[in-house]
Amino acid sequence: MIEKKGHVGESFEEYLKEQGTLAETTAIAVKRVLAWQLQQAMTEQQISKNQMAKAMKTSRSQLDRILDPDNDSIQLATLLNAARVLGRELRIELV
User: Fold this and answer.
1) Measuring CA to CA, which residue among 95, 58, 52, 50 is closest to residue 74?
2) 53 closest CA partner among 86, 15, 16
3) What mean pLDDT do residues 51-67 have?
4) Residue 7's CB: how many other CB atoms inside 10 A?
5) Left, alpha or beta for 89 (phi > 0: left; psi -120 to 50: alpha)?
6) By the 8 A CB rule, do 34 and 71 touch?
7) If pLDDT is split at 50, 70 and 90, which confidence band does 32 have?
8) If phi over 0 gives left and psi between -120 and 50 gives alpha, with beta otherwise, what is residue 87?
9) From 57's CA, which of 16, 33, 48, 74 has a CA 20 to 30 Å away?
């Protein structure tokens, strides 16, 4: 007899909820996507890290922290500034 299973995404999300790590895992995933998107936009616009840091009025090491997919302690204002420099918009929503 074949047992019917739900969607894989739903069961994984339930698993993370049960483990108490859903919020943390989601935050890490969001930061990784944002870092990737910023890096992609810089590449598309041919903006170097030094140019980006200068436009943001910050240091190269601070920009490296922003682009580090594992660093999730970046302030919202910093992400907004990075998006603005790239001519992009940062959207955050509650669902």
Assistant:
1) 58
2) 86
3) 96
4) 8
5) beta
6) no
7) very high
8) left
9) 33
Please state the pTM of the whole predicted model: 0.78
Quote the percentage of the chain above a pLDDT of 70: 89
Q: At what angle do helices 49-56 and 60-67 cross, to 10 degrees?
A: 110
Asked if 65 and 74 count as a contact pair (C-beta separation under 8 A), the reply is yes
Tokens of 80: 């907004």
From residue 71, alpha-carbon distances to 1, 3, 18, 68, 86 in Å are 46, 41, 25, 5, 20
The total number of residues written for the chain in this structure = 95
> Stretch 1-24: mean pLDDT, rounded?
75
Helix, strand, or coil (residue 30): helix
User: Both tokens of residue 57?
Assistant: 């009025």
Q: Domains in the chain, please, with CATH?
A: 8-85 (1.10.260)
